[in-house]
Amino acid sequence: MRATVIHASHDIRVEEVPDPVIQRPSDAVVRVVLSCICGTDLWAYRGVAAREPGQRIGHEFLGIVEEVGVDVRNCAVGDLVVAPFLWSDGVCSYCAEGLTTSCEHGGFWGSPGSDGGQGEAVRVPYADGTLVRLPSGAASDQRLLTALLTLSDVLGTGHHAAVGAGVRPGSTVGVVGDGAVGLCGVLAAKRLGADRIIALGRHQVRTDIARAFGATDVVAERGEAAVEAVLELTRGRGAPAVIEAVGTEQAMRTAVGIARDGGSIGCVGVPHGSDTGLELSEIFERNIALRGGVAPVRTYIPQLLPDILDGTIDPSPVFDLTVGLDGVPRGYKAMDERTALKVLIRY
């Protein structure tokens, strides 16, 4: 089969690799229908996150079950399924409490020895704990299928940020970051009942999506100017709930700056490039809670799935470029150059 591999910084290739096979009784093999490129993948592409030459890449996909091991009970050949960005056994103590990202037997797609999500098929360990079945009829509805793909990562991550920020009905929410995760954070905050959502972003195409997802205000400034603008919008107090969806020092400083005393920051931007440089004394003195981390999206999928199926939310607009598997290198380049927000890969 063909799959995406990374050889070095800015060197993404689509190559022939061995077909996945059942290795353990709890495995399944999924034939990929849709996958995508994540902003997190760009850190490997740019050389910020280390990868072995020839390592697989990609961690968001949905597809059709092609084969199952003898112990698999929750899915069958022919089922349409979505996979979260980490596999998990579903039965360990961490999974039992919903923290599937800390699963004792879990792992990340594309890690050495595993298949990546940007390929024609994937061997799925612990299929019963990992895969979530989708309605078979969704396979014929391309818009719905695209929306369902966001359950693998970006929508659940935005939701995790909103939960960490303590968004509730009537909340005022500040969202730092206009990437796909930040936009899904806007959508998640609206779904949870926020009355006012202040989106920080400089790119009109993206802030237009933020408004469509529920943002009531847009702040285009950065740094201290952004903090001042949000404080002006909130009568000098700041937002009681803040979503940080970037992971840079500046983004975290902005998040702290726009948070109201006693507020909460839901941080899901993967830290990269530098230390956060935060003064813990400021967070302490202002009673700001810092929550978030790697989103346990497998836990959130059952909560979010019904709202996608009935049309309550539609996260599909975060995809603004579609390529085939051969076009994946072009998709990485487009996202790296910020000419694409999030790239959909159709097989």
Tally of structural domains: 2
Distance between the termini: 12 Å
- Content of β-strand: 15-25%
Shape summary: globular
Overall SS class: alpha/beta
Rg measurement, Å:
20 Å
CATH class of the largest domain equals Alpha Beta
Mean pLDDT: 96
- Written as H for each helix and E for each strand, in order along the chain, the element string is EEEHEEEEHEEHEHHEHEHEHEHEHEHEHE
Task: Report the helical percentage.
Answer: 25-40%
Tally of DSSP β-strands: 18
Largest sheet: 7 strands, mixed
CATH architecture of the largest domain: Alpha-Beta Complex
Q: Which fold name is given in CATH as the topology of the largest domain?
A: Quinone Oxidoreductase, Chain A, domain 1
- Taking pLDDT < 50 over at least 5 consecutive residues as the criterion, the unreliable ranges are none
The CATH H-level superfamily of the largest domain is Medium-chain alcohol dehydrogenases, catalytic domain
Fold and architecture overview:
The chain is of the alpha/beta class and 347 residues long. The mean pLDDT is 96. The strands form four sheets. Strands 3, 5, 6, 9, 10, 17 and 18 form a seven-stranded mixed β-sheet that branches. It is 30% helix and 25% strand. 51% of the residues are buried. The protein is globular. It folds into two domains: 203 residues, Quinone Oxidoreductase, Chain A, domain 1 (Alpha-Beta Complex); 135 residues, NAD(P)-binding Rossmann-like Domain (Rossmann fold, 3-Layer(aba) Sandwich).
